[in-house]
Amino acid sequence: MNSTYELPLDEAGYAFGFMDEYAKKEVRRAILKAICIPGYQTPYASREMPMGRGFGTGGLQLTLSLVGSNDTLKVIDQGSDDSVNAVNLRQFVQMTCPGVDVTEKTEEATLIQSRHRIPEKPLTEAQILVLQVPYPDALVVVEASEARRKTMHGEADYSRLLVKLYEDIVKFDEITISHRYPTRIHGHYIIDPSPIPRWDVPKLHQSKALILLGAGREKKIYAVPPYTHAEPLAFEDVVFSVEDFRDASGNRRICSRCGASDSFLDEFSDEAGEKIYQCSDSAYCDEQLALLPSPASGRGAEVAA
Amino acid sequence: MSRKILEVNNLTKIHGRGCPLCLESTGPEADTNICPHCGSVVAAHGVSFDLYQGEILGIIGESGSGKSTVVKTLYFDDAPSAGEAVFFDEDAQYDLYSLNAAQQRSLRNKRFGMVYQNPHLGLNFNVSAGGNIAERLLMSDVAHYGAIRERARSLLVRTEVLENRMDENPKKFSGGMQQRVQIAKALATRPPLLYLDEVTTGLDLSVQAAILDLILEIQHELGTAMIVVTHDLGVVRLLAGRTLVMKYGRVIETGLTDQILEDPQHAYTQRLVASAL
Q: To the nearest whole angstrom, how far is the Cα of A142 from the nearest Cα of chain B?
């Protein structure tokens, strides 16, 4: 960076993207290292952000150091574009990055920051997915010391995680990990893929889009580069499976709003106290709803009735 | 003559910074293992022996004589200050202390077994008895749940732990049963070399006898070479063909167990045998 060149600042004295250029450069370096060593937790100097750690500051720093004025950004929180975390982060980027477009449509976005979900619509090579991570180390459940965890990662010593799976099967006849499913990247490092449901784990495998994971509080960045193997941890004879959303009679539940039968469903209670199911990915649900012949007498209305 | 499994040369372990006078100022003649000049503890020095396939070697001595230090360094729990040890596997030989950490871990998981006096060191008390055995199998790259379960079950049956308690936490077991689970865990990968560090100490006599029987049966069945560390002369008499006697970190006498117990040469061994009988 040229030290004699004055970087442009806005009227309040902030650079484009809130963080100063040196900070962004440091994050980008960490990103490059993370991509070079798939699954390795690269340490970085997580900056103070004008929001509490644990509110997505890791993902936000990745987004701010990657976003440019020609980008289109989508922010998701648990699949929805309209929940508090997503709205706040989107408004922050709009305020600090003039010229960046925002969208709710997955296919329009070049950069997607997400909390706890990967969009249903397959991502493309032109997109980058940024995931917010609360606990970056999958080994934290079996080993308290970070120094020892680092050695275990270095030697790919993950037997104690498998013992946990063994104990699960002994006790419950199945693997009970519902989210943060330990996943082996490129045959070596096992990552905590952030609290995405099991449903989303296969989307990491040979993904066309670059997937970056940022933990602000724990000061770690790691990556699943495009077209990289991502294998969820399992036994040869007890294989990994995603949520199947079957009801008591064995039928696949469908979204009560759009009727989709191929999406991850959230469970709600309606006013009468009955359980209803709806797509977790709101953009996908809207798109499916728009495809229905007539909104008033659509499939969704029938399902709801 | 059977195959050599382990060759140990001049194994030395000094706790502390050490000084040039350490070695000459400690040992049985000096009647201490703490160096008067620098305060370092010479836990073991100049320990050399060979071990052959299927043989049981006993190491006896009083508390602090360095007998546990020897097996701990051989099992990579502790790094030695000097000396070398060569392990002869079926088709390869390994200079134990020139291996890197990952290679050491691999040998430790796949080819060596260890049973500690304190089950808390050898077992993971947060998982079930079966899970403990599974851990060792998973470390040696067995990744088939059914196979792991079958192997764990047969090992626990072999070591006389009730099969229907396999999924219980070893916290709930008696001391004797915890030792059996430890032995089952150590045997999980069919190691050619097993270290037993005071396995029967603190158990009542009938349980001691049952565990010693079990160890002998395993040795006959599998031909496992073992190093048995104990301060109990009865244990070496029953198990060990050859015995080393240690005091203040030095080997003071070595020979056939019968010879050592019936006709001890060193004054300390004479006292040890006399006090026990």
A: 10
Whole-prediction pTM: 0.86
Contact list, A166 vs chain B (CB under 8 Å): 127, 130-131, 134, 138, 145, 148
CB contact under 8 A, B145 and A237: yes
Q: Tell me if ipTM is over 0.90.
A: no
Residue A41 is which amino acid? Q
How many Cβ atoms are within 10 Å of B241's Cβ, its own excluded? 14
How far is the alpha carbon of A284 from chain B, nearest alpha carbon, in Å? 38
Number of other CB atoms surrounding residue A296 within 10 Å: 7
CA angle, B216 then B221 then B222, to 5°: 100
Q: Are B33 and B94 in the same domain?
A: yes
Would A9 be classed as within a structural domain? no
End-of-domain residue from the set A176, A201, A232:
A232
Q: B254 vs B10, B171, B261, B266, CA distance in Å? A: 15, 39, 11, 10
Residue of B nearest to A157 (CA): B139
Q: Average of pLDDT values for B127-138?
A: 94
Same-domain pairing of B10 and B81: yes
Which residue of chain B comes nearest to A162, CA vs CA?
A: B138
Annotation says A258 is catalytic = yes
User: What is the identity of the amino acid at A196?
Assistant: I
